[in-house]
Amino acid sequence: MPRPSKGARLYPRPSDGGKYIIIDGKTQRRTGTTDRRQAEAMLAAYLVERERPGGPAEPDRMSVAEALAIYGEQHAPHVADPARIGHAISALVTWWGDTPVGAVTAAACRRYARERVVCAGTDRERPAGRGTTRRELGCLQAAVNYCATEGYLTRAPNVVLPAKKAPTDRWLTRSKVAALIRAARSNPRTRHIARFILVAVYTGSRKEAILSLRFEPHPGGGYIDVEHGVLYRKAEEMRETAKRRPPARMPQKLLRAARRWKMAAGRNSGWVVEYRGSRVASIKTAWGTVCQKADIRATPHTLKHTAITWAMQAGVPLADAAGFFGTSIQTLESVYLHHHPDFQAATAAALDHAKGRS
Question: Rounded to an integer, what distance in angstroms lies between the CA atom of residue 315 and that of residue 30?
């Protein structure tokens, strides 16, 4: 008597680093991920694809969860940061669930933005920020567009996103940065934050790029070439994204510090920012401790704003700053240019001259 089928299920394959595969009878399909939530989304998409009749579906005949599952399975594994899409899908599915794609209206999107909470069901529950809901609804728009393009949907509805937040002009003075560094060095548990701060304010690199830096080339991120004084923010084979990671010539103060770090580490560690010889995956707790001790309100990304602001105050040409920081000239003009000593100087001088003639 044949054994009853267990149905489609996930199995972490040890020989493939624990990456999940979908097993459905004699059918096996790789997911390419070790993240359980992403794998579950791909399993859901597989089940939808297996049961779906041929031809694209009308928006009223496909649920938002099904569209997100298809997007998560087929598109997310091929992007630079699939976990980011996975987090957005998880939040979207919790709220939208089996809602038909055809019910994605402007009113429904605004209701999602109002009702979306962080840490739901706990004492720390709070409304999600505008940037969070905007990113998540952007993922929903990308998912339904993908389904329409790939023939799963006849058409994609228009997802209405919350308005963009106005650019913030939050940066730190040199004395406040020094206070953060002193606070970090005063505690053995937070000393690695001092290195993070130095790299951030001298290169304007983002947190993820800094934490993946080593002293030698590697496939998982960038490295510091202490011989030639260049910081490479990403590995050669890494895909370029909207958050560009161009190489940066290191200021001499940072280069001298990096050479000391590499010499002190020897063969024990190859990570620029390390904790007890190991890579630092997250600085959330240590960063909060340092800011509390220094009595300064800031986020790690504030250091990037600080670096660019200092460069503008020093009169660095926009084209040079754009190449160094991996930021577009348009962003520099709209967010940081008012710090530049030449900001509207020609116009002000011309008006002064006109006043003198009259």
Answer: 53
